[in-house]
Amino acid sequence: MKTRNLVSLTIVTVVVIAAAAYSVRLRNDQMASVQELPPLFPNLAAKINTVDEIDVKSHTDSTVIKRMPDGSWVIASKDDYPAKFDMVKKTIVGLTEMKTVEAKTDNPKLFGELGLQSVTADDSKAKLIELKSDGKTVASALFGERKYVPGVNAARAYVRKPDGGRAWQVENAPNIDTAPKSWWVEDTVAVPRERVKEAVLSGPDRNTLTVYRESKNDKNFKVRNMPAGAKLQFEAAPDSIAEGLAYMSFDDVKPASDVDFSKADSAVYRTFDGLEVTAKLASADKKTWIEFEAKALPGAEHPEPADESAATKSADDTTSKDAGKATDKDKDKAKEKPLDVPAEAKAINDRVRGWAYELASYKAKDLTKKMSDLLAKDEKKSDKPGKPNPGGT
C-alpha cells in the first residue's frame, strides 16, 4: 500500500514539475514580447527609404518587384505590371521591425526541422526575401515555419540569414508570399449588374446574343431576338451574362501585344448612366485572354454637382415632412455627387490599357455564352435569331 502511494506521489510530482516548467517557459515567451528585443537587421531602419527592389523566391516561384522613377512599384518579372504598394510597404517595414526572440540551431543538418532549407532543395518549404538598393543587397532572410505562441499576438516565425549562421525565432514576422499573383494590383474593371442596361456578346463564328433591360427597376434581363416559341431555361438565365463584368479576377497577366485578338469574341456592356466597356476574348495555349476598353457614350457627361446646402435642405425638408423618419443616411444620400462617367472611363483605360489578362474558365464561360446556353433543352435547336422582341434598345 505504501509502495503504491509512493509511486502515485512520484507521478504527481513529475506532472507538477512539468507544468511548472511549461508555465515558466510560457511566461518567458510572454515577457519577451513586451521587452525590448534586438532587431534581426539593426541597420535596416536607416536604409529603408533607399530600398528600390524586392526579390522573393521559393522552390516553385520567383518574383521581382522594383520601384520606378516616379515612386510607383511594379512587378519586373511580369513586364512591369503595377504592384500593390501596401504589400511593398508591409514587407519592407516588416523586415525592419522584426525582432529576435530566441536563438535556435546553427547546425545546417537541423535547418530542415524549422523549414529553413535552401530554396534550391527539392523538399524546401522556405521563402527567401532580399531587399536591394542600387543593385546591392541591404537585407536578406530565409523564412521557415511560422510559430504560434499562446498569449502572444505578434506573428512569429523561424528565420535565418541565407549566408549561414544561426537560425532564430523572430517576432513581428511579415507573411512573405512569393507568387506574383499576391503582389499585383487586382483592380481592372467592375461594372455591377445594377448599372447594366444591356450586354452584347458577338464573334466571328457566332450569332450576336443581346440581353437587356428597359428599366433599372426590371428584376430580370430579357433576351433580344429569341427564336419564335422558344423558352428560357429559367427566368433569370440571362442575368449571368449581365453580371459578367461585376467582379473581374485573373490568373495571369502579360502585354496585350503578346496575344492575337484579331479574331476575338467580344462582350460589350452598356450602362444606364452612359458607360460602355468592351471586352475582347481570345484563346491561346488553351487559356482565355481578355483585354478591355472603356468609353463614355454621348450624353454621359458628368452633371453639375448638386449644391450641398440645397441637398441638405431637401433632406431636412423630408425629415420635417416625415416627422423625423429621415436618418443621417438619408441626408448623406441626398448629398451624393453624380458619377463622373467620362472620368470613370479614363480611369479604367489608364489601368488596363496595353494588358491582357488570363481569365478563369468559369468567368470566360459567362462572357462567351450563346443563345442555346440560355434556352430550355427542347429549344436548343438553333442559335439563329428570330423575330425581335418589342421594346428594348
Structure description:
This protein has 393 residues and is α+β, with helices and mostly antiparallel strands. It folds into two domains: 45-182; 193-303 and 338-379, no CATH class. The protein has helices at residues 2-34, 85-97, 239-242, 308-321, 328-335, 341-352, 361-367; strands at residues 53-57, 62-67, 73-75, 81-82, 99-103, 127-133, 136-147, 156-160, 167-171, 196-203, 206-212, 222-223, 252-255, 265-271, 275-284, 287-296, 355-359. The strands form two sheets. The chain has a nine-stranded antiparallel sheet with strand order 4-3-2-1-6-7-8-9-5, sandwiched between helices. Strand 14 (265-271) and strand 15 form a beta hairpin.
Helix and strand sequence: HEEEEHEEEEEEEEHEEEEHHHEH
User: In what range is the share of β-strand residues?
Assistant: 25-35%
Query: Count of helices?
Result: 7
Global morphology: elongated
Structural class: alpha+beta
**Fraction of residues in H or I helices:** 10-25%
Question: Unreliable stretches, pLDDT < 50, 5 or more residues?
Answer: 1-22, 30-34, 306-326, 389-393
Q: What is the terminal separation in angstroms?
A: 97 Å
Q: What can be said about the biggest beta sheet?
A: 9 strands, antiparallel
Compute the CA-based radius of gyration: 30 Å
Number-wise, the strands total 17
Mean pLDDT: 83
User: What's the number of structural domains?
Assistant: 2
Strand order of the largest sheet: 4-3-2-1-6-7-8-9-5
